[in-house]
Design brief:
Blueprint lengths: L2 H24 L5 H12 L13 H24 L4 H7 L3 H12 L6 H20 L6 H23 L5 H10 L2 H11 L3 H8 L7 H24 L2 H4 L5 H14 L5 H18 L10
Length: 289
């Protein structure tokens, strides 16, 4: 990968890591469905000046549903039901493994032995951290977050196989499909006018969280990530996402005062080893003569 693309992949992972901290903080003021609607209302704002992508409507709907709607609704509900933000940050990154496996089955992409080793070490690190962060987690929350990671992976592959060339247009218009259904669902899930009143009377500062999630983590982050997936194989890009939970881990330590022990520290070290392995360029065969 080119150095600029490596830097963009790392930056995107850091922004996504901080998003878990912002999500937990935002769920104090908003319900999960309200937060989903607000996130994508903000990320859809550029649709006012950006033309729709040249893509089949059904494909756009599927990308919107799996990559954005289902993933984040399940993720937010999981956090609300007791999944710690740090643990959620690591659990959601099982999408990296799902992405590589689905790419192999669907697209015929074969990860190299080194990439497989990097993923195995990375997920070994995730397992160590999950073991140490299990306090307070709920079974249903765990299942919801794991399902969200599978939805993330499906969205990755749909994004990669789309024919859209303007990635920011695709991300913005995929976001634009979600606010209305989310707010309609919120009316039924959040006790109708009671939930609406709570949303309308939320302090203005509470909307800073959804704005970050929408404009920074979604519009910017997914535009960059989608372009990288278009340029490189899923196996080459997926390991970078493993940095996001590390940022979420340290962010939660700073913001929420969470503390972690030997298992978590060992897991973070393993993830960084996997990232280093994924960054090592493939050896080019010698040409004789």
């Amino acid at each position: 990968m080119k150095p600029l693309h490596v830097a963009l992949a790392l930056l995107t992972a850091c922004l996504w890591g901080l998003a878990f901290v912002v999500s937990k903080a935002s769920l104090v003021a908003f319900t999960p469905t309200q937060l989903t609607g607000l996130r994508f209302a903000f990320s859809a704002l550029p649709a006012l000046v950006i033309a729709p992508p040249k893509i089949a409507p059904l494909q756009l709907i599927l990308i919107s549903f799996f990559l954005f709607g289902l993933q984040f609704e399940l993720q937010f509900i999981g956090i609300k039901l007791g999944m710690p933000a740090g643990l959620t940050a690591f659990m959601i990154q099982s999408q990296a493994l799902f992405t590589v496996l689905l790419a192999a089955l669907w697209l015929g992409e074969r990860p190299s032995p080194r990439q497989i080793l990097a993923l195995c070490i990375g997920f070994g690190g995730l397992a160590l951290i999950a073991f140490g962060l299990g306090h307070g987690a709920t079974g249903i929350g765990f299942v919801l977050v794991l399902t969200a990671s599978l939805s993330f992976a499906l969205g990755n592959l749909l994004l990669k196989t789309s024919r859209a060339t303007d990635m920011i247009s695709l991300i913005v218009w995929a976001s634009a499909l979600l606010p209305l259904p989310a707010f309609v669902a919120s009316w039924f899930l959040d006790h109708g006018s009671i939930g609406l009143a709570a949303l309308l009377h939320a302090p203005l500062t509470a909307f800073a969280g959804p704005a970050y999630l929408g404009l920074v983590a979604t519009t910017f982050g997914y535009t960059v990530w989608g372009r990288l997936l278009k340029t490189y194989s899923a196996a080459a890009i997926a390991p970078y996402a493993l940095l996001a939970p590390c940022v979420g881990l340290f962010g939660s330590m700073i913001v929420f005062g969470e503390r972690f022990g030997a298992f978590e520290i060992s897991g973070v070290a393993a993830i960084f080893v996997s990232l280093v392995l994924s960054l090592i360029p493939a050896r080019q065969p010698r040409v004789l003569g």
